[in-house]
């Protein structure tokens, strides 16, 4: 399997705090990689370092073998790195459709320059995530679960090669979680590689080909989900704490 993303010895400090500490891993073509870890472990920071909204203090990030560490976020989006945000901020006043069309206008390859075509692409993404019936509604009037789907549709409209998902299942009930899992599996069938941060262990276990665990910014495990979830360090650092 070829690596679509290569993260090498990446560190990010915030003043005295090391949020991500010397982390290395690859995301392989067509893979779903789950990233877990306790609150504050550095998961969102890692996604921001890959998408380019944060710069690393040290280390290198490569996309399809090319260094992207110094590229700004919009250029990484053009190359094909799409992300969802944990805190959803739909463009206020815009319809659900136009929120997604914005993604289409700024996406992979420079995006779609024609607004009608961007809306056409956006409609297809809304259909894909099951939000088509809300297309003409104002995005800021959507309920929580639908906003999660909107985040996914916005990222997919950028036609990414890699999708970074930051807690797209948080706050959803079990049925909604299963629906999002199905959507993500279909995203992978499109040939898109996925890195997914999630707290819901059962969900991420059934979705991921591989699991990576962060604890205090350090990678403490990386491997097949069953092996990782029974690793003593992981149980102690993460599962044990959550069960306590
Ligand atoms: N902009 C920032 N300035 C200062 N500290 C930050 C900043 N962003 C994150 N941190 C700190 O870095 C650490 C890692 O945060 P991060 O949000 O990446 O963790 P996380 O694993 O995503 O947590 P959660 O599961 O709660 O979302 C935390 O201690 C956090 O307080």
UniProtKB/TrEMBL annotation:
InterPro entries: AAA+_ATPase, ABC_AA/LPS_Transport, ABC_transporter-like_ATP-bd, BCA_ABC_TP_C, P-loop_NTPase
Superkingdom of source: Bacteria
Protein name (database record): ABC transporter ATP-binding protein
Keyword entries, A-Z: ATP-binding, Nucleotide-binding, Transport
GO molecular function, one term: ATP binding
ABC transporter domain sequence ranges: 5-241
Residues forming coiled coils: none
Species this chain originates from: Ollibium composti
Pfam families cross-referenced by the UniProt entry: ABC_tran, BCA_ABC_TP_C
Keyword ATP-binding: yes
């Amino acid at each position: 399997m070829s690596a679509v993303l290569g993260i090498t010895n990446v560190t990010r400090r915030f003043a005295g705090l090391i949020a991500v500490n010397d982390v290395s891993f690859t995301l392989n073509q067509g893979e779903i990689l789950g990233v877990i870890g306790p609150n504050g472990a550095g998961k969102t920071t890692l996604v921001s370092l890959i998408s380019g909204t944060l710069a690393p203090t040290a280390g290198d990030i490569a996309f399809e073998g090319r260094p992207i560490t110094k590229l700004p976020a919009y250029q990484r989006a053009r190359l094909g790195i799409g992300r969802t945000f944990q805190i959803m901020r739909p463009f206020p006043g815009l319809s659900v459709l136009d929120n997604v069309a914005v993604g289409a206008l700024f996406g992979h390859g420079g995006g779609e320059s024609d607004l009608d075509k961007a809306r056409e692409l956006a409609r297809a993404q809304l259909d894909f995530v099951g939000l088509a019936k809300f297309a003409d509604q104002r995005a800021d009037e959507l309920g929580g679960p639908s906003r999660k789907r909107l985040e996914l549709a916005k990222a997919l409209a950028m036609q990414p090669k890699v999708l970074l998902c930051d807690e797209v299942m948080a706050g959803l009930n079990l049925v909604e979680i299963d629906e999002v899992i199905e959507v993500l599996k279909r995203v992978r069938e499109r040939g898109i590689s996925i890195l997914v941060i999630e707290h819901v262990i059962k969900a991420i276990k059934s979705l991921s080909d591989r699991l990576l665990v962060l604890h205090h910014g350090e990678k403490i495990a990386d491997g097949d989900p069953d092996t990782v979830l029974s690793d003593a360090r992981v149980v102690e650092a993460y599962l044990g704490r959550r069960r306590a």
